[in-house]
Amino acid sequence: MHPILFQIGHITLYTYGLFVGLGFLAAITFAGKRATARGVEKEQMTDLFFVILIASILGARLLYVMIEYREFLAHPMAIFKIWTGGLVFYGGFIAALISALIYVKKKGLALWKTADILAPAIALGHAIGRIGCFFAGCCYGHQCDLPWAVTFTDPHSLAPLHISLHPTQLYSVLSNLLLLFILISVEKSRRLGTVKYDGMIFWLYITLYGLFRSCVEIFRGDPRGDFWLEFLSVSQGIGLTMALVGSGMLICLYRINRLK
């Protein structure tokens, strides 16, 4: 693939950074349109996304550094080179969630309504960002001989070179697009009266993303860290925990709203 899109003198445009930026731009635009359609000020949603942007990048990098701390002990200045790859979605998501909660409370926004607006936009932005991950070669898969296997040859790639690998980055892209389709479909059914409470779209996102991510992790070949007895990776452990919490919240919100 092509980790570096182009280089002019000392100016380098990394493909990973470009797609992460495009992902955030798409998410902000989509969330803004969803907010307007639901009677929420677009500017409030845009400001919220900038808070999420900063928090998610810091959180994603922090978790990656914590997992791969041995690498950064030898090269501490590499911590700041986020444009070369090395962002963990879960770290960014947790940091963004905490920051978003603070912002929503400060602005007096409806929590679950705001969360429902954001969830599909996050899935869209994440799908686009993962394309950059593919170009950079990070989050690469196990070796395989499947017809759709990919081989990285660029010396700047983070993946092992000249070996056929699972395109796990593209698995992530497809799973996020599938998640986006499911969320939008459920939301449409909600407008028809099938679903009657705020928060369902968000917690459905949490549940399904955790499950989808845990499945993709099976095919990952990069160092994952151990969560439990070398059986689950850190991301799988977090993903399954998210799925359990999300399922529990869906049940709780359903019961609460059923009694109203």
Structure characterization notes:
The structure is a single chain. With 260 residues, the chain is mainly α. It contains eight helices and six strands. A two-stranded antiparallel sheet has the order 1-2. It has a two-stranded antiparallel sheet with strand order 3-4. 40% of the residues are buried. The mean pLDDT is 85.
Short description:
The protein has 260 residues and is mainly alpha-helical. Helices cover 64% and strands 7% of the residues.
How are the SSEs placed, and which strands pair?
Layout: E1 4-8, E2 11-14, H1 15-37, H2 42-67, H3 69-74, H4 89-107, H5 111-136, E3 150-151, E4 164-165, H6 168-191, H7 200-217, E5 226-228, E6 232-233, H8 234-258
Antiparallel strand pairs: 1-2, 3-4, 5-6
Helix pairs in contact: 1-2, 1-5, 2-4, 5-6, 5-7, 6-7, 7-8
Q: What are the secondary-structure elements, in order, as H or E?
A: EEHHHHHEEHHEEH
Mind telling me the C-alpha Rg? Answer: 19 Å
Q: Strands across the major sheet, in which order?
A: 1-2
Uncertain parts: none
Which features would summarize this protein structure in a list?
260 residues; mainly alpha; two-stranded antiparallel ribbon; 8 helices; 6 strands; 64% helix; globular
